[in-house]
Amino acid sequence: MPERRVTVASKVGLHARPAALLAKAAADQPVQVTIRKDGGDPVEAASVLGLMTLGAMHGDEVVLAADGDGADAALDAVAAVIATDLD
Predict the structure, then answer these.
(1) Which of 2, 18, 24, 36 could serve as a FRET partner for 49 with CA atoms 20 to 30 Å apart?
(2) How far is CA 10 from the centre of its chain?
(3) Residue 5 DSSP SS3
(4) H-type helices in 1-87, by residue range?
(5) Considering the entire predicted model, what is its pTM?
(6) What are phi and psi of 14, to 5 degrees?
C-alpha cells in the first residue's frame, strides 16, 4: 500500500477551512485515502470530522495511505493540498 509523508502547512493545522478543502480533495479521488499521525489510528481523509479529530497542527507530519488503481496519483493530489497554506 503506497504511503506519503507530508508536513501540515496551514497555520491553523487541519481545522475548519483547511479540513474542509482537504476532505473535498480526498473525496474527489478514485480511491479511498486515509490519514494518520505517527503512532495514531488512520481516519478517512474525506471526512472533515475525522480530520479534525487527528489534532494535526502546523508543522506536524501526517501519513497518507491509499490502495488500488490510481493510488499514487491520489496520494500526490492530497499531499499537495496538505503541503499548501490554506489559511
Answers:
(1) 2
(2) 12
(3) strand
(4) 17-27, 48-54, 71-82
(5) 0.94
(6) -90, 70
Across the chain, what does the average pLDDT equal? 96
What are the residue numbers of the active site?
15
Whether residue 21 has pLDDT greater than 80:
yes
* Start-to-end CA span in the chain (Å): 31
Q: What gap in Å lies between CA 17 and CA 38, rounded to an integer?
A: 23
- pLDDT confidence of 55, banded at 50, 70, 90? very high
* Amino acid in the structure at residue 20: A
C-alpha grid cell for residue 83?
503541503
pLDDT of 61 higher than 80: yes
At residue 48's C-alpha, the angle toward residues 9 and 57, to 5°, is 30
Can you tell me the distance from the alpha carbon of 37 to that of 87, in angstroms, rounded to the nearest whole number?
21
Q: Which three cell numbers stand for residue 26?
A: 480526498
β pairing state of 43-44 and 3-7? unpaired
